[in-house]
Amino acid sequence: MTHINVQEAKTRLSQLLAAAERGEEVVIARGGRPVVRLVPVDEPAPRPVGFVAGSVPEAFAEPLPDDELARWE
Q1: Cα-Cα-Cα-Cα dihedral of 12, 16, 18, 24, to 10°?
Q2: What InterPro entries would the database entry show (predicted)?
Q3: Domain boundaries defined on the chain
């Protein structure tokens, strides 16, 4: 585990990010008191396409009949 103060963290940010990506726990302190912990972000799981059951009818993209269209105007 790495404990580091804010001023040094500003100077070594790239190194600290690399350490966190490797799984090392990095704690940044202010005035000797731990404030934050750097951790890697987990990649989100891929979302499946077509996750909603059902289907779209063939006539979905066809123009509305005149009487139906008139009700929307």
Answers
A1: 150
A2: Antitoxin_Phd/YefM, phD-YefM_TA_antitoxins, YefM-like_sf
A3: 1-40
